Fold this protein.
Amino acid sequence: MNDKHQDLVETMFPSDGSGIKPYEWMISPTRQRQWIDDKGIFLWLAFFFSEIGAGLYFMSLFYSFRPGIVLGWLITLVLGGLIHMLYLGNPKRAWRMIMKPNTSELSRGIWIIGVFAVLGFLQIITPGGFNMVFNFIMGILCLLIISHGFATMNVIRALPAWNSTIVLPLSIISGIWVGHQLLQLMFAISGNAAAASGMEVWAAAFFLAYFLCMLLYAWGTWHASGAAKAAIQRMLEGDLKQITYIGVGVLAILVPLVFTLIMWGGDTNGFLIFLRLASVCAGDLAIRYLIMKSAVYNPLI
Amino acid sequence: MPRWGMVIDVKRCIACWGCTIACKEEHFLPPGVFFNRVLIGESGKFPTSSKLIYPVLCNHCSDAACVEACPTGATYVREDGIVAVDDEKCVGCRACMVSCPYQQRTYYDEKVKDREYFPGQGKTEMEIIGEKLYPFKLGTVIKCNFCSERLEDGMKKGLTPGKDEDASPACVNICPVGARIFGDLDDPESEINRLIMEKKGKQLRKEFGTEPAVYYID
Ligand code: SF4
Ligand code: SF4
């Protein structure tokens, strides 16, 4: 069997049974592929980087920490933006979305990122940039960018696992949690141990909120509908279970919990903060991957 | 202006896949791409189970999820109710594909374009001609268009869609048992409106609120 033949067989009868055979198609819960398989993987990364960049920017506003907003701005625009372009394949395509600002959640997101780019740049270069008005506007923009990825998914009624009300709080808290971790590491690296230690009190609160949102998401989705439940079942028992147990159970929950307990009371050190950050980032990537990969459509008949 | 719609009589359908093939031929669809499918399923449990046969295609929804999701306005509802894609505006973001509860859209990329019906033996003349006669734009999303070209050409000749073959969708023409009825949903006298009223036509997955223009009767 040559490569082309192999490709055709894989197209018609994929190993996961979700093939496009014209007769056995959408008669059982069918998984979403476009926004996670092949080039769709770029969207997963683009949403993640936009979120953590905006999270870092958001947290830095509370500490008037310029290097934090510069790095957050760069991560959101360079990494987030670039990977979005890789998905679309051509910058001109993003331009066409900008030209239709009111058509959909995606085009509104592109606009928000555009406004964030301009106002963020102005805040970075303005000497008195950390004033109330600027901070307030940028804070709102950061929250919108953090939730942009999941908001885009949340409006898709066809996928009940994405259409859950807890998806937005989960994305906001995860962005703030990862942003907090990044900022804490920046403080630790720059020798500002007091600020890094002072931030630890928030680490426990954000971790707890993040953990509760995850639980609520799983519980709410399980009880929402048949297709939503099928998504959670795929995470817990199906082909995705290893990512769930290692990525979410260990990296997103257990390891950060252990480090948070070790650093309880502000007893922080740079290395532990780094290890917790690495684990939190990997865990957050795993959660996003699972939510995107596990979503299934209701069967048609 | 008419609003085109279709009624499918699932009791009549014998699952011959004529519509699936006629559609592939009409639009020169590459391997693995279907604008029309006939789904075979089951309901109930043995010994009282029954076989379900459902021909499916784009529902040309009047409140289409794909239109709502499209960030460029490339997907739109035409005045005659047909949901179309303007490939000049489409950026291939696939929001429409993800949003369609009926999964009636296909992303047309190199991988799809390069598929051969006889793998490893090159494209047949039919495939080569098809790419010229019915070109799809790379990096865009394609879908059923209710054979809008046939409808428009036929109407220019004074023919009536749903009645005259030259003005009707290929899947309707091929159906050997007349399970597909095409017509104007806005005309209270039309055959399809009569069938929908008399036989209580149902839309597939009505709960998504997309208002499909394809109705099923049994
Ligand atoms: S069936 Fe899907 S692709 Fe067709 S109009 Fe409805 S939502 Fe759009
Ligand atoms: S892929 Fe094209 S038609 Fe579909 S939502 Fe994106 S721009 Fe619109």
User: Anything to note?
Assistant: The pocket of iron/sulfur cluster (ligand 1) is lined by residues B 58-61, 64-66, 83, 100, 102, 104-105, 143, 210 (CB under 6 Å).
